[in-house]
Amino acid sequence: MPSTAHAVCRQCRREGAKLFLKGDRCYTAKCAFDRRSYAPGQHGQSTNTKVKEYGTQLREKQKMRRIYNVREKQFRLYYQEAVRRRGVTGENLMMLLEIRLDNAIYRMGFAASRAQSRELVAHGHFTVNGRKVNTRSYQLKPGDVVEVKDSSRSLVPILAAMASSAGSHIPSWLEVDHEKRMGKVLRVPTRDEIDSQVEVTLIVEFYSR
After folding, report:
1. Where in the chain is the domain with CATH 1.10.1050.10?
2. Interatomic CA distance for residues 4 and 10, integer angstroms
3. Under 8 Å CB-to-CB from 178, ≥6 apart: which residues?
4. What mean pLDDT, rounded, does the chain reach?
5. Which pLDDT tens digit goes with each residue over 104-155?
6. For residue 175, is pLDDT > 50?
7. What is the mean pLDDT of residues 32-57?
8. Handedness of CA 115, 120, 126, 131 (dihedral sign)
9. Nearest to residue 133, comparing CAs of 142, 143, 115, 120?
10. On the CB side of 44, how many CA atoms lie within 13 Å of its CA?
11. Dist CA 160 CA 131 (whole Å)
């Protein structure tokens, strides 16, 4: 039975792209995708497989869903909300996923990966505007302040994540003060501020079939 770490790496190989599901490890020589970028399974290295339009759209949708660690039903709800909102559906979808609490905490450098961020949120280590929030999908809005709880300020995973992310790029839609263990949402992110390498138009086409 494959280990959890191995299973995570298989997701990247399945999508044919780095999804950065293991945080900083994905940038090192230990990254399994760099060694075996072909799909898992006995036909993974086949070069004759023709991917149809539907399959291409499906793979892009699965890629985005796995990047943000969102279940299928929830992802569809995000898409439906993106359609209802004014503006470009694909950009709305990415924005809704970016302003999730677990993603914002990862972007702020308080967690080494989105998976770790989800766990930290679920265990109640963060507050939003002074109130404890343990809902990973909590939707942040401009002006919201995210802080590490006083009792969690010395938590090893958080300290390690901050040390690892020191000097790393923080998205311009966020303001972060690691010394105070806090971050603030300045505004809603735009498409060019989101570094997820996903062809979101293919996802819109997938749901528009």
Report:
1. 4-39+49-97+195-207
2. 10
3. 109, 162, 166
4. 87
5. 999 999 999 999 999 999 999 999 999 999 999 999 999 999 999 999 999 9
6. yes
7. 67
8. positive
9. 120
10. 15
11. 24
- Amino acid identity of residue 102, one-letter, is D
Query: Treating both helix axes as pointing N-terminal to C-terminal, what angle do 114-122 and 101-108 enclose, rounded to 10 degrees?
Result: 120
Given the structure tokens 């010395």, which residue do they identify?
Answer: 154
What gap in Å lies between CA 107 and CA 8, rounded to an integer?
A: 20
The dihedral built from the CA positions of residue 108, 149, 26 and 15, taken in this order, carries a sign that is negative
CATH topology classification for 4-39+49-97+195-207: Ribosomal Protein S4 Delta 41; Chain A, domain 1 (1.10.1050)
Tokens of 95: 């924005």
Could you tell me the two tokens for 197?
Answer: 């390498």
Which pLDDT value is given to residue 1?
45
